[in-house]
Amino acid sequence: MIRLWSALAFLVVVSLLSCQSDEELQRQRYITEGILLYKNNCANCHQTNGEGLASLYPPLAGSDYLADKNSVICLIRYGQQGPIVVNGKRYNRPMPAQAKLSDLEIAELTTYLYNKWGRETTVTGVKAVTPVLNQCKNRL
Ligand code: HEC
After folding, report:
1. How far apart are the first and last CA of the chain?
2. pLDDT tens digits, the chain, 140 residues: what are they?
3. 3-state SS assignment for residue 90
């Protein structure tokens, strides 16, 4: 009987561990893709280290704008026009829309941005991103 219980306890522990590492694997996959997408679509302006460029392109590293994740998700797809304030500094240049990025790619980018510069250690999954994108469609 004791054996049976310890076998069951063992199984429970193993399944909990593998569940956690599935999530960790997904996070690593998203971040790996996110890094590539960032290099190809964002680093030209915001720079590889996310520090932005002078008064032209605002920083992502340490940006207080990241506090509003829904706005960031919308801004990646639809771009941004007009004045914007980041860490108390005013910027006013158009950021081009990225219409060719899929919902999944935006989820990967968002996961990368927030793991790198937003103090998060979790995945922003495509299931969370799609409803936000559907909403900002109406807003813009
Ligand atoms: C052509 C240059 C350019 C590219 C490419 C670009 N951005 Fe931007 N980005 C800007 C500018 C300019 C602003 C400020 C817009 C304004 O002044 O209204 C901005 C603003 C932002 C902001 C909000 C402000 C901040 O600094 O936190 C985020 C987040 C952002 N961009 C993320 C991205 C991501 C992610 C990508 C890649 C998918 C990207 N940008 C690609 C130029 C660019």
Report:
1. 64
2. 678 888 888 887 777 777 778 889 999 999 999 999 999 999 999 999 999 999 999 999 999 999 999 999 999 999 999 999 999 999 999 999 999 999 999 999 999 999 999 999 999 999 999 999 999 976 55
3. strand
User: What CATH code is assigned to 22-139?
Assistant: 1.10.760.10
Atom of ligand 1 nearest to the CA of 65: 27
Domain chopping of the chain, boundaries: 22-139
Residue count of the chain, please give it. Answer: 140
Residue written as token pair 């063992």: 10
Q: Is the CB of 72 under 6 A from ligand 1?
A: yes
Task: Verify whether ligand 1 is closer than 6 Å to residue 42 (CB atom).
Answer: yes
